[in-house]
Amino acid sequence: MINEPFLQAEGLVIKYPLVYILTLSWNQCADTLECLASLQKTSYPNYRLLVVDNHSTDGSVEAITQCFPRVEVIANRQNIGFAAAANRGIEHALCHGAEYVFLLNNDTIVEPTTLEEMVSQAMALDVGMVAPKIYYYADPQRIWSVGSHRHPLTLEKMRGGEDELDQGQWEDVVQLDFLTGCGLLLPQHFLEDVGLFDERFFIFYEDSDLCLRARKHGYRLLMTPKAKMWHKVSVSSGGKDSPFERYWMARSSVLFFRKHIRGAQWLAVVPWRLGSALRTSFRLGCRGHFHALLAYWRGLLDGWLGTQEETA
């Protein structure tokens, strides 16, 4: 797992910075094992693998330690959410000498050269985050995310290539306003300057919040298309439009906009978000997802009140 961290060429010795590859797990044992298997094929020569488990009940921790004995595991005694679990892993990585942390979902697989490509783009001090081009696992040539820009008034993410077939239209490194937390390379100096994830976001929008803070600090966010990974999409949240996904998406969205919207921006945000809530409610109702609809409005209310549901 940890190979020779030095490259010798023409009398020069080049040290590869230590990268901690951090993935979070909450059940979905088979997905985590497949993810770890793909990560062990990385061409980057100086890395460590770390799993932070959010109190899985399907034997994930035991399976990870048995199948991958050199992987470091932090086993939480309860599900503390994505942001908090990611922070525990990042803190562990930084305390053990990490110069970069590659955070990725456990329902992904990664091309062997991905980490090497991202590190090469992250060397400049003004780069705060680097993300790969992410495809759908079930449709390997269709793009799931290449990041996006934001509308300056509403802070809504603008369409950025999702669901497109990759026909070479995203072959340049691009600077963006948003990169998904599904796969992020984070430099040590950036984390120490901007800070870690805001743990008030149990799941969802924690990446949006960190990206916005990064841009306010003057950091560039880059998507590098030569780095590639494939995502199974919404596995840990029970799938799109599940009650769990709808509740936490709604709650986190309210927290995000309350945190970042100021002054006259509310004049644009309130009607936009109200329209979005009505469209979402109509879609859920038409599809008969009434439990998800109730969870969605409960999430909006809890986000406004600053409360939350009990979690597993």
Features:
312 residues, Spore Coat Polysaccharide Biosynthesis Protein SpsA, Chain A, globular, 5-stranded mixed beta sheet, alpha/beta, 2 domains
Short note summarizing the structure:
The protein is of the alpha/beta class and 312 residues long.
* Spatial ordering of strands, largest sheet: 5-4-3-6-11
Please report the first level of CATH classification, the CATH class of the largest domain: Alpha Beta
The portion of residues forming beta strands comes to: 15-25%
Number of strands: 12
Q: What is the name of the CATH topology of the largest domain?
A: Spore Coat Polysaccharide Biosynthesis Protein SpsA, Chain A
Unreliably modeled segments: 6-11
In the CATH hierarchy, the architecture of the largest domain is: Alpha-Beta Complex
Structure characterization notes:
The chain is of the alpha/beta class. It folds into two domains: 6-231, Spore Coat Polysaccharide Biosynthesis Protein SpsA, Chain A (Alpha-Beta Complex), CATH 3.90.550.60; 243-305. It is 37% helix and 22% strand. The chain contains nine helices and twelve strands. The protein has helices at residues 29-39, 60-67, 82-95, 114-121, 188-194, 206-216, 243-260, 265-286, 290-305, and strands at residues 6-9, 12-15, 19-25, 47-53, 72-75, 100-105, 108-110, 127-136, 143-145, 174-176, 183-187, 220-231. The chain has a five-stranded mixed beta sheet with strand order 5-4-3-6-11, sandwiched between helices. Strands 7, 8, 9, 10 and 12 form a five-stranded mixed beta sheet that branches. A two-stranded antiparallel ribbon has the order 1-2. The two termini are 32 Å apart. 41% of the residues are buried. Mean pLDDT is 93; it is low at 6-11.
